[in-house]
Amino acid sequence: MNAFETIAAVKTPHAEYGHMALLEVGKGCGRGCRFCLEGQVYRPVRHRSVEALRETVARMAASGERRVGLVGACVSDYPWLGELLKVIEENGLELSISSLRADSLTEDLVAALARGGHRTLTMAPEAGTERLRWAVRKPISDAQLMTACDLVRSHGIPNLKTYFMIGQPTETSEDIEAIVDLAGRMLERLRVPDATGRPFGRLTLSISSFVPKPWTPFQWAPFDGAESLQAKLEIIKRGVRRFSNVRVLHENPREAALQALLARGDRRVADFLELAASYGGDWRRALREWPGDAEFYTTRDRPIGERLPWDHFDVGVKKAGLLREWERAQTESTVAVGAR
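and the corresponding structure tokens:
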């Protein structure tokens, strides 16, 4: 990991992050969220040393960069993050981090983000209830989320963005309604003036749709379906209308359905891709005219014994381990959080 610099090879002001220099601190993630492909195929977790990063940060500062963005599957799990933050500050650079885990937030980290001009802190609860978070193996408690809200306000960061995922395995209507309830409870903690008397800005709920991925414990789970996902989005949007400073962002569930088809399809889906290409990328028209059955690949339950289209690829992930985690998810979804 230390043999070469892990920085953006191409930098342009027209890119999404063109206003900052990107620096990768490590590869892989040891958390093992059951919906996540990166946590499976990029093992083992590898971190660049602080000394190697110190040299890179110094060169960035010398070249005139003003802001550095840390990149990684789970940046807040970087073992020497506190030391790295000091290195960045010593070189006079502002700091940016994409998304942080609520259970990894510290006073020092949030304070460094605030000093670096961070106006929005982002974290990913993924689900509205602790039960569902445990089922997908993202065991973040409501109490940790509330503590994160307190840290945001105590250090004067005006906005909070949260990522949620709907359509996950074992999800119930109570889990969807709980997203609205959680947003309200978070707002109660956020709607306090910061140390300088400035009010809270906005809470953003960014809602994505669960798409089962190959080589993950949830590869056997069905995609929820565009209509079902749209109905769940409407429940969330209606529920938060009573909050003046909550914004809901979401993708089109029909586009998520396309992702599910591409993620779970076999070689016969190549005909659909060829058809879409012939229509200049108009995949909606291609779906209407394609003779295949999209739901066969997307919303159908996959039996454990079924040979999956990607089974013949070796990516270093053992199917037996994935199956064990899939079965654990079914069990843990029925166990009360307090009993764990």
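(Above: one complete record from the training split.) The radius of gyration is 22 Å.
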